[in-house]
Amino acid sequence: MPRTYPTKRIAALQLPSKPRYQENLEILLDRLAALDDVDVVVVPEVFLTAYDYEHLSTAAKFAPKALKAIKQACGDRIVVLTLLIEEGGVFYNQAVVIHNGKIVHRQEKVKLFKLGDEDKYLAAGKARRIKPFTIDGVTYAILICFELRFKELWKQIEGADIVFVPARWGLPRKRHLEILSDALAVMNQCYVAVANSSDADMAASSAIIDPNGEAVRDDASDTIVTDADMKEVATMRRYIVLD
Fold first, then answer.
1. CB-based burial, 171-205: b 16+ in 10 Å, e otherwise
2. For residues 107 and 3, which has the higher predicted lDDT (pLDDT)?
3. How many CB atoms are closer than 10 A to CB 55?
4. Interatomic CA distance for residues 210 and 192, integer angstroms
5. Residue among 151, 109, 146 nearest 130 (CA)
6. In-domain check, residue 227
7. Residue 200's domain spans which residues?
8. Is the alpha carbon torsion for 15, 17, 18, 20 positive or negative?
9. Nearest CA to 62 among 76, 52, 74?
């Protein structure tokens, strides 16, 4: 019998963060309710709180409450987001993958953006936790925002069919985000789903890019939605063999 390949309908959100955490959570829950026909939802980096360094403890205490509500709302979908958390008196930016109401993957941001003072307030995670993981026969990986710039991390996630990039990427470097995310899709022969903030000083440029480098990208939309066909990944990897 011929092999069958799954198709995943992906939504990459492109939203601004409001000052009130609860308002952001309600916006996300409303968006999840509206996106009942998608398989995966990717949320911009630290969307619920932004980088609220003045109230890090409050932001970290909000994370468990938010996760509980999101787990209840996600259904059988995959939801990818990052949150500010506290462990042992140390703060991290942690990516969380929720599937069927359970957290199935976590990793902390490893490459902190010094221009944005991330290193002054947050601790870096462990690079070994950046690796592919599989859900229902599809292999995924995550790079958080600034991590997209590091070629050694591209190597670590080779083999992923879909790479998620939750981001809070600044407007002055908008073209960098687009070039790097397009290039990652071509180099690793995979889909790349970027969900970036649309705050006034952020780049937007959320996109879903296929293994051929073709991007669905629309700065005027708050949600980018398209289908990721795993057959396209397999075809590209057979057509251009890189090993």
1. eebbeebbebbbbbbbbbbbbbbbbbbbbeebbbb
2. 107
3. 13
4. 7
5. 109
6. yes
7. 8-239
8. positive
9. 52
